[in-house]
Amino acid sequence: MLLNTKRFGDIEISDDRIITFKEGIPGFEHLRSFIVILLDQTKPFFWLQSVEEDISLPVISPFDVNADYSPMIDDSIFDELGIEKEDDLLVLNVAIIPDDMTKMTVNLVAPILINVAKNLGKQIIIEGGEYQMRYLVYDTVMKLIKEV
């Protein structure tokens, strides 16, 4: 399948790369099919690109910006996604990258969980106030970029 995007140009994708979000993503509930794009020039950020519309979200591994990130997730979520082993789980969080990059944040309250073996995804909300919705990450990201 050829996917035409403004941000990445034309991308040839195979059906086995498409991740299904049965409930969509909050704010984009009407979109159910996405791919994850990793570009060398945007590391450590990935992109969650819709297959249905030309919408892409910058995402990052929460473990890259907060080594202690360990939210409590109900086992029913893992069952719903069919996750059988830890290696099947990819955790990403949406980043906000404003014009003033020093104000870059990551939403640690709403991780995106992806079963990479079954291409199923779900964004959840972490209750309890342990994590911030606008977690400042500029300094951490700049260190990561220097390491790449």
Q: How helical, in percent, are the residues?
A: 10-25%
For the sheet with most strands, the description reads:
9 strands, antiparallel
Q: Give the overall shape, derived from the CA principal axes.
A: globular
CATH superfamily: BH3618-like
CATH topology: BH3618-like
Question: How many domains make up the 3D coordinates?
Answer: 1
Mean pLDDT: 94
Overview of this protein structure:
The chain is α+β, with helices and mostly antiparallel strands. It has a single domain (about 1-145), classed as BH3618-like. Helix content is about 15%, strand content about 30%. The chain contains 3 helices and 11 strands, in the order ββββββααβββββα. The protein has helices spanning about 60-65, 75-80, 140-145; strands at about 1-5, 10, 20, 35-40, 45-50, 55-60, 90-95, 105, 110-115, 120-125, 135. The strands form 2 sheets. Strands 3, 4, 5, 6, 7, 8, 9, 10 and 11 form a 9-stranded antiparallel β-sheet that branches. The model has no long low-confidence stretch (mean pLDDT about 95).
From the structure above, extract its key features.
globular; 148 residues; single chain; 11 strands; 9-stranded antiparallel beta sheet; 3 helices; alpha+beta; BH3618-like; two-stranded antiparallel ribbon
